[in-house]
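call fold target=Integrase core domain-containing protein
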Amino acid sequence: FDNQLIDEVLDGFDIERSLSMKGCPYDNAVAETTFKAMKTEFINQYTFISLKQLNIELFDYVNWYNNIRPHGALNYLTPKEYKENFYKNCLIFC
């Protein structure tokens, strides 16, 4: 999706925009999956009364997402467990 107004706003905040290539719907699959989980498991479950509350709840969600929630794409390990296993195996086989 390319929009001149969005580009101008992002430029105003010195944010570089990254778009998927046409015909490559899987370019951004990991990010899209993460955003979908965040929307269904976090954003749609709360009404935030302040930015401070949002920051606190988001910190807790990210901690849960990385350290407690199993991920099907990671063989039902948490990202933390997957990373730990990767480094253990790397020490053995690398």
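return ok
The CA atoms of residues 54 and 60 lie 10 Å apart. The chain has four helices and no strands.
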